[in-house]
Amino acid sequence: MTFTYYGHSCFSIDVKGKKLLFDPFISPNELAANVDVNTIEADYILVSHGHADHIADCVAIAKRTGALVICNWEIYLWLQKQGVENIHPMNTGGKKAFEFGTVKCTAAQHSSSLPDGSYGGNPMGFIVSCEKNFYYSGDTALTLDMQLVPQSAALAFCILPIGDNFTMGYEDAARAAHMISCHTVIGVHYNTFPYIVIDEDKVKAHFQRNGLDLKLPAIGESINI
Fold first, then answer.
1. What is the pLDDT of residues 44-56, one digit of tens each?
2. Helix, strand, or coil here: 179?
3. Which residues contact residue 115 at a Cβ distance below 8 angstroms, ignoring those fewer than 6 apart?
4. Domain coordinates of the chain in residue numbers?
5. Global pTM?
6. Which keywords does this Swiss-Prot/TrEMBL entry list (predicted)?
């Protein structure tokens, strides 16, 4: 499987020949200026919540690619108003099989509103059960609900926010990794804004001391996972 990082919390994972794009926020991100959003391919787009830094490019990419957008009910209704037609609504606790594998929606402790200020519904994370099971927590605080994650799937890797201030910081992300029994972590939601700038060497050292493998790919970089 290939993981491609597009900055902030936006990434793509190739699963069984299908491209899964998560939380598309690229064109407004100055750190992702080298990424041409018009070239990004997607068969599915998974949206964790409605904040602009997770959904800014969703409508444009969905219309251009015809990708199926997986999101909560409120985002589903909002996307319909934006002219997106290929959408599958879900909500916290729900599970659905798709051609690449199964998606289970998990609780995320955060907030959610849409770019026009309307209510964005429940924030979510996703457990994707496929050739290599993985968990994307979405924007969230550390929560005891994470103890339920490994009961749904044995994880090969996980994607967790590490930037602090608006989400878990790196110390809580390391605790989360142990809680979900997953030692390979890809860090996201950091460095994009002054509020969430991290000391990468310090963060990597903390994960290493805790027996965890933290991966911080560069924006635009693809890694085998």
1. 999 999 999 999 9
2. helix
3. 50, 52, 55, 56
4. 2-218
5. 0.98
6. Hydrolase
